[in-house]
Amino acid sequence: MVIALLLAQDKLSKLVAAQTAYAAETHAPLFNDDALGAIRYWAQYYRVSAHQMTETMRCESNFDPTAVGDHGKSFGAAQIYLPAHGPNSGRYVTKEQALDGDFAVRYMASHWKTDTWSCARDLGYYVVR
Questions:
Q1: What is the pTM assigned to this prediction?
Q2: E strands along the chain, which residues?
Q3: Helix, strand or coil for residue 119?
């Protein structure tokens, strides 16, 4: 179990490093400097609705990368629910990553079609699954 966790963390660290390098290469706007620009950029990259992502993130955290919700189980601007993102989930996310605005906006865009955000559901964005 410990070895699997360490391997998952190592794989995730490499993925985050690659994502950070990619963002630098592509000149993606930084979330803390331009949250809406970062949302538009990654929404376009992953071919999802920037409007729906913007309204969902506004509802989830009001764009606060330090937001904590769901009784301490959801973190960051995208309110990533950590119990659903454990080491064996295939989409492991740490608390530190969830609290990183750049990671959170790219995570939301890349998982928009597979994950469910409660605000997106409440706003009526998940009609067909």
A1: 0.76
A2: 68-69, 74-75, 80-81
A3: helix
